[in-house]
Every structure is written in C-alpha cells, then in structure tokens.
Amino acid sequence: MSELAGKVVLVTGAARRIGRGIALRLAREGARVAIHYSNSEAEARATAAECGDAPVFRANLESVAAIERLFGEVGSRMGRLDGLVNNAARFTRIHPLEVTEADWDFIHSVNLKAVFFCCQQGAKLMLKTGGGRIVNISSLGGIRPWGMHSHYCASKAGVIHMTRALAKALAPEITVNSVAPGVIPFGDLNEHSIPMVEATPARRPGTADEIADGVAFFLKSTNFVTGQLLAVDGGLALR
Ligand SMILES: NC(=O)c1ccc[n+]([C@@H]2O[C@H](COP(=O)([O-])OP(=O)(O)OC[C@H]3O[C@@H](n4cnc5c(N)ncnc54)[C@H](OP(=O)(O)O)[C@@H]3O)[C@@H](O)[C@H]2O)c1
Q1: How many C-beta atoms surround the C-beta of residue 147 within 10 A?
Q2: Domain ranges of the chain
Q3: How high is the mean pLDDT of the chain?
Q4: 9: which strand partners?
Q5: Contact 82, 129 (CB under 8 A)
Q6: Mutate to test the pocket of ligand 1, among 92, 112, 139 (most ligand atoms within 8 A of CB)
Q7: Does the pLDDT at position 98 exceed 90?
Q8: 48 within 8 A of 35, measured Cβ to Cβ
Q9: Over the stretch 106-163, which tens digit does the pLDDT of each residue have?
Q10: Which residue's CA is minimally distant from atom 7 of ligand 1?
C-alpha cells in the first residue's frame, strides 16, 4: 500500500496534459484526488471519472477571492487537505521588447500570484489537521534563461525561490518542494521545442507520468525533504 493511500490531494489544472497525468498517478496510488479546472470542464470530468469519481472544483485562479472559495469548498467537501500540487499555469512566447503590461499580468497572475495564494490557503487548511505536503510545478525555464520567454522565465524562477522561502516559513508541519519539467509534449512539438529535445541528454522528450514520479516522491517524503528543486528534464538543465 502506497503512503499516499487515503490522502486528500488537490491538483490544480488537472483536466488535461501534465495535471491529468499527475492526478491519475496519485489516484492509482490510492490518494483521494481533488480535480481543479478552469475552462476544461468536459476533460476535468473525464479525468475525475478515471480517478474513481473524484470531485471536481472550478476556479479561475487569477482571482484571490476565487482561490479562497476553492479551498473553502475543498475543505467542506473533502474534510481535510494533505497534499497540494500547484500545476496550473500559462505559457506565452513574446520578445521582451514587445511584452505589454497585460502580457506580463496574464502570465504572472496565474504562474506566480496564484501559486502563492494557493500555497497560503492550502497551508491554512493543512494546518487544521497537523500539516501536509505542497509541490509547486515550476519549469526548466525557471532555471535556464529563454530569451523569447523572459516574462514566463521570471514567473517560474519566482516559483522556485518562493518555494524555498515558504519551505522555511511553513516548517516543520508542511513541506514545500518544486518539480521543474523539461520538454513534455502532447502532440505539440514545434520548431522551438524540437531543438530542445535534440539537445536533451536523454535524447527524448519526457512524459506526464515522469513528472508525476517527481511529484509523488515529494508527496511521500518526510519533512526532512523541503525547499528542494527536482528537474525532471532528461538532463537538459545541464546543457
Ligand atoms: N508541457 C511542458 O513541456 C512543460 C514544460 C515546463 C513546465 N511545464 C509546467 O508544467 C505544468 C503543466 O504543464 P502543461 O503543459 O500540462 O500546462 P497547460 O496545459 O498549459 O496548463 C495546465 C492547466 O492550467 C490551467 N489554467 C491556466 N490558466 C488558469 C487560470 N486562470 N485559472 C485556473 N486554471 C488555469 C488550465 O486549466 P483549464 O484547461 O481547465 O482552463 C490548463 O489546463 C505548468 O505549470 C507548466 O508551466 C510544462
């Protein structure tokens, strides 16, 4: 029996792609998964069905009030929160000379601000039952500088450093760690990502289940593993 059996874990952006892979994996290990989505309702319900009729929660994470409502609903419907995986994010490709205030806010409202307030609300709920585990999905782009994604890189570097600060603040009851995916395509490899795959020491792209391996590791670890960053990128960060 996995240490995750019976644990209540909320995965944000769990309808599709990496979030879906994480949710399916945690459900397979016996966790009671809470599926968050924003626009992808049909996909969220399909993922939830595959997770053993898991409950679904809709929230636009741009809004702190919506985040507070989300965690209130999770608390009342699930009764507790043991794990939180902050996976939801946005990604755009814009030259820094072209980035507008709206472009910046579009990325940072979800990738950094929402992750902070989900950690805050998640931690408050976890503390009611003694503590828990938070895993923030960052990115290789938070470790390596990508010129056409400076606004996105800043948000993900922010997630990585915020993870460390929160790990100190929330210890010893709650651990906060980060998984940084490399290239994880879903049929959408393009002229920008193909060269990255070719440069990857593993010589292939990664899968959602490989990201879920890293997430599960942190969710199952003792509180002696906190503030850490695990790149699951086939070695690309080493280039
Ligand atoms: N795929 C990669 O190669 C890669 C590489 C590095 C890092 N990552 C990171 O890994 C994570 C998952 O990647 P992915 O490619 O699977 O992500 P994705 O498909 O681009 O986004 C995941 C989910 O985020 C949710 N989301 C976006 N804006 C939201 C908002 N305002 N409120 C609530 N939810 C919102 C969406 O939910 P709805 O669909 O329900 O609207 C979306 O399905 C992200 O943190 C990403 O930055 C991915």
Answers
A1: 8
A2: 8-231
A3: 98
A4: 33, 83
A5: yes
A6: 139
A7: yes
A8: yes
A9: 999 999 999 999 999 999 999 999 999 999 999 999 999 999 999 999 999 999 999 9
A10: 139
Does residue 1 have a pLDDT over 80? no
Q: Is the whole-model pTM more than 0.90?
A: yes
CA of 227 to the centre of ligand 1 (A): 22
Does the domain at 8-231 match CATH 3.40.50.720? Answer given as yes
SS3 content of the chain, % helix, strand, coil (to 5): 50, 15, 40
What's the Cα-to-Cα distance from 185 to each of 76, 204, 223, rounded to whole Å? Answer: 36, 10, 32
Distance of CA 48 to the CA centre of its chain: 17
DSSP helix/strand/coil, 80? coil
Contacts of 94 (CB under 8 A, 6+ apart): 103, 148, 149, 151
Provide φ and ψ at 12, rounded to 5°: -85, 150
